[in-house]
Every structure is written in C-alpha cells, then in structure tokens.
Amino acid sequence: MDALTDSGVALDALNAHFAGMPPVAALQPTVADWRDGHLQLSAPLAANINDKGCAFGGSLVSLMTIGAWGLVFLELAQAGIEADIFVADSRVRYLKPVFEDIVIDATFDDAGERAQLVDTLRKQGRASIRLKSESLLAEGGVAASFVGRYVAIVRNG
Q1: Is residue 89's pLDDT more than 50?
Q2: What is the DSSP string of 125-147?
Q3: How far is CA 119 from CA 116, 125, 153, in A?
Q4: Would you place residue 83 in the very low, low, confident or very high pLDDT band (cuts 50, 70, 90)?
Q5: Any idea what the Cα angle at residue 59 is, between residues 53 and 64, rounded to 5°?
Q6: Radius of gyration of the chain from Cα atoms?
Q7: pLDDT value at residue 2
Q8: How far is CA 146 from the centre of its chain?
Q9: Are 63 and 102 in contact (CB under 8 A)?
Q10: Which of 8, 20, 55, 135 sits most deeply, having the most CB atoms within 10 A of its CB?
Q11: With pLDDT > 90 as the criterion, what percentage of the chain qualifies?
Q12: Which helix (H) or strand (E) holds 11?
C-alpha cells in the first residue's frame, strides 16, 4: 500500500507540492478542510490584494485552479495512484469583489465521473474529469466561480 493513502500523509504531500511552486507559495494557500469530495482552501487577503484593496482576480482563479487540482491529487492518493495532473481547459466568472481572506471550495462537477476516475485510470492509464471551484464570501455569497477539465496520466515507474 502506498504511503499517500493515509489522509494526513496525502495532505502533507499536497501542502509540500504547493510550497514547492514559488507562484503558488506566494498565494499562501492553506488546506482548511477536505472531506466528502470537497477541498476547501484559504489564503490571506494581504498576500493576494490588488490596487483596489480587494483580492486580485489572478489570485482567485489560481486558487480555484489549484483547489480543484488538489482535490484530484488527494482522491488519487487515497486510491494509491501517482499521476501527473494537468488542467486542460477552464472557464471563470467573477461575480463580486473579495475584501476579506479568500476561501475556495473545490468539488467534482459530476459524481459519476468521480466514481469512475480511479477505475478509468487503472484500466487506461489516463482519465479526464470536470471539477468546479467557488470563491466563497463570509456572508454566504459566491465571489467567483470556476469550472475546469483536468487530465490525469498515471506515472510509470
């Protein structure tokens, strides 16, 4: 059994991966929660602020992108699969400015695709899956939404 199947080890590996990429590390993402097909990240506004005093749109889309990427990483780690994961395409909508620390919730866009992800990877060595992320506001609204298609390719060796 792969060591990453332990959820604490998988989260540590994800955090190390984020810290190892300078542009991502600069965003200062923190895993706030992971369960039931959801990954929630948080990041301080101070590290992601623009000239208007709100969150930089590039930070929002980056955090939503890595939140969805991280969810695929964790799902595969739980199954003992090491894969290279790529974002293939995405769409983002900015709805409201964020004047507070950033909270991102990433989830699978389709429960059926999620259920087939591991089996497809084991059988074909690659799989495609859609995910969505939202930037959530403390008052309950959504500041930005993201939908992306990710491709995972099993690592050989």
Answers
A1: yes
A2: SEEEEEEEEEEE-TTS-EEEEEE
A3: 5, 9, 13
A4: very high
A5: 130
A6: 15
A7: 43
A8: 11
A9: yes
A10: 135
A11: 90
A12: helix 7-19
pLDDT band at 7 (very low <50, low <70, confident <90, very high): confident
Task: With CA atoms as reference, report the closest residue to 81 among 89, 72, 90.
Answer: 72
φ, ψ of residue 27 to 5 degrees: the values are: -75, -20
Domains of the chain: 3-154 (3.10.129.10)
Tokens describing residue 75: 């799902």
Tell me what the mean pLDDT of segment 73-82 comes to: 94
String of DSSP letters for 47-79: GSB-TTSSB-HHHHHHHHHHHHHHHHHHHHHHT
Asked if the model's pLDDT at residue 8 lies above 90, the reply is no
pLDDT of 3 reads 47
This prediction has a pTM of 0.93
Residue 35 corresponds to which tokens in the numbers above?
């369960």
Q: For 39, what's the count of Cα atoms within 13 Å in the CB-facing half-sphere?
A: 28
Handedness of CA 29, 31, 132, 80 (dihedral sign): positive
The angle that helices 7-19 and 57-78 make with each other, rounded to 10 degrees, is 140
| Helices 111-124 + 57-78 axis angle, to 10 | 60
